[in-house]
Every structure is written in structure tokens, then in C-alpha cells.
Amino acid sequence: MAPGIVPPYLLARIAALQEENWARAAEAARATLTAPREYRQARSRLRLSIQEPGTLVAEATPAPDREISDAQQREVLPGVRVRGEDDPASGDQAVDEAFDGLGATFDFWWDAFARNSIDGSGSSLLATVHYGRDYDNAFWNGERMVFGDGDDEVFRGFTGSLSVIAHELAHGVVEDEGGLEYRDQSGALNESVADVFGALAEQHRAGQTADTASWLIGEGIFTDAVQGRALRSLAAPGTAYDDDVLGKDPQPAHMRDFVHTRDDNGGVHINSGIPNHAFYLVATALGGHAWERAGLIWYRTLTAGTLPSTADFTTFAHATLAAAAAEYGEESEEVDAVRAGWTGVGVIPDDEPARPAQP
Ligand SMILES: [Zn+2]
């Protein structure tokens, strides 16, 4: 099943509600959990790269190529095309929020990392809104971003949060860069990388620094009936919500609280709290705009071409150290911050030597 922004354990909890006043939400969550979703595997691609030394290349800022479709509350993709890149605002809130959110996400990837869209080569950004009736999720299906309207009792629509839109698009970037298998620790890393770039896209649009940002994923997607600020918090995993109905945010922030479970593909939306918090520690230690140094280190890690798709937390942590050293030097404050981030969440032991002993 395609990864969704709302984890299955949260939907299961809503689905089990018996009270009359949650009837619509319970029904919606049951339908969302059982709905089949088509997931397209990445197609293999042929890439051509022609570089002639001495050739002058005109520099241009690329622009996004967005296309929004409307599923008209059916669970059929792509739905009816309702807005293309050159079309004016449609007047439909979900359509226009998705369009604007994809644009802000495109600008983030280009400004921060000079990445031209999901595949780095200007691929179209496709989204479908109004997917299903009372559909309680948003997901990336390997080809497009898909957004439900929510049930209006627990969840509002999902296009209102830029971190949700950017999270889904980041799954596309991860997949394009070789992927992280969607189970156990590599799956939690896949979720975490999507959260990190989701949060960074939101911070980039708002011009926020690491210490002024909320570090929340999905702020504003709950209705006022829910005691919760968001789906997840990178600053304080485990505190995003604490509600009679939804229960408490189950994310750990440290390896000592790692959750061993077979649900949720081995806890991919739960244990992602650990690498999420490591990133937060690195970003706040370095200060300033988090995408400029911490984000760049994570981006280089993802795109170096050396990260195994089955990477566990320790492998990923050492890959971020190598990326930081390559970018800023072995003795840099960036390397020290990255090391402190991973020791802070218990992934790298405190007593691990900073550099391998010389032979
Ligand atoms: Zn996800």
C-alpha cells in the first residue's frame, strides 16, 4: 500500500469509535483504511547527460509544470483535469491550495538545492484532490500526490498544510534517488526524510529560522474537536497530540524508546521520530535557515548515490557525517553538530571515536 500521511494506527483508533457524535469520522476512517489504492512502481529510466567542456550554457530559473485533477469524490485516478500551469485560480479551495502548495514546494527544492522538480529534470507535478468521500488521508502513489477532503469531524482537508504537500512530494524525491525500503528502520528513514523536507519547505515559504519554526507536520489538519496541534513534531516527538479520541502521539525521540512492532510496516510512522529529532538537533545547533546547512547535508546524503535502500539508522547517521565532512571539512562545526545530533537520540554511541584510528 502506498504510504499515507496519516498512519494506519491513528485511522484504526478513529474507526473503532462507537459514540454517535463521531459516527461520520468512524465511518470515514473505516473506509479510508480498507480502500484499495493503486501504487505505481517507479519506472526504469534512461538518462542522457551530454557535457561538452568549454560550452557555455544559458542559466535560467526553471518554472514548475503543475496539473491538478479533481476525483469528484470518487476513488478513481487521475480524475478530471481542472487546472494547468497557465490557468487562473479555479475558485475551488482544495484545487488552488494544491496548486499553490506544489509551487511553493517546487521553489523550495530549486532555491535550496538547485533541484528542478521531483526527478531533477523538470518533471510535471501532478495532484488529485477531492479523492473519495470523507477520505481521511493524503498519499503519493508513485506518480502523483492524492488528497482526501477529510471527514470534517477529526480531519479537515489535507491541502491546507504545506508540510503535508511537501511531505508527499519528498517521497517522490526519495524514490527517484534510489529509494528507502518502506519497512522497519529504512522505512522510518523514508518517512523521516519526507517529514524533514516537508518541514523545511514550510519554513522556506515563511522565511523562518530553526529557532522560530514550529517543526510540526500537518499543523491545522485536525478540527477544533481534537486536542492536538499536528500529526507529528520534530522538536518534541510524542507531543503532537494527546486526545481522548485519538490517544497520544506514539513517537519516540530516542533509541531507548524504539518501538518494536509489526504494525505500520514495522513502525515506519512511529520510529521516524528518532531520525526526525536528530535532524532537529542538528538544525537548531547550527541555527539560521535550517535548509542551508542541516538540510543540505541531508540532501547530499540522499543524493550521493551511496546510500543503500535498506539503510538502518546507524548507516544513515554515518552517511550524514560523511556528507557533512565532504561539504564542510572533517574538523567543521557542521560535522560536530551532526555527530551531536545522532548521539543525542542514541543512534551513535557517546564514546564512538570521532574519526577512525589511523593505521
Ligand atoms: Zn509519508
Tell me what the structure shows:
This protein has ten helices and nine strands. The protein has 359 residues and is α/β, with parallel strands linked by helices. Strands 2-1-3-5-4 form a five-stranded mixed sheet, with helices on one face. Strands 6-7 form a two-stranded antiparallel sheet. Helix 4 (162-176) crosses helix 5 (184-206) and helix 7 packs antiparallel against helix 10. The N and C termini lie far apart (48 Å). The relative contact order is 0.11. Residues 42-51 have low confidence and may be disordered. Residues 3, 5, 167, 171, 191, 194 line the site of zinc ion. The site of zinc ion (ZN) has 6 residues, from helix 4 and helix 5.
CA-atom Rg in angstroms:
20 Å
> Which range best describes the helical content: under 10%, 10-25%, 25-40%, 40-55%, 55-70% or over 70%?
25-40%
**What does the main sheet amount to?**
5 strands, mixed
Question: What compounds are bound to the protein?
Answer: zinc ion
Shape: globular
Note poorly predicted spans: 42-51
Query: What is the count of helical runs?
Result: 10
> How many DSSP E strands?
9
Q: How would you write the strand order of the largest sheet?
A: 2-1-3-5-4
Element string (H = helix, E = strand) = HHEEHEEEHHEEEEHHHHH
How would you briefly describe this protein structure?
This protein has about 350 residues and is of the alpha/beta class. It has helices at about 10-15, 25-35, 95-115, 160-175, 185-205, 265, 275-285, 295-305, 315-330, 335-345; strands at about 65-70, 80-85, 125-130, 140, 145, 215, 230-235, 240-245, 245-250.
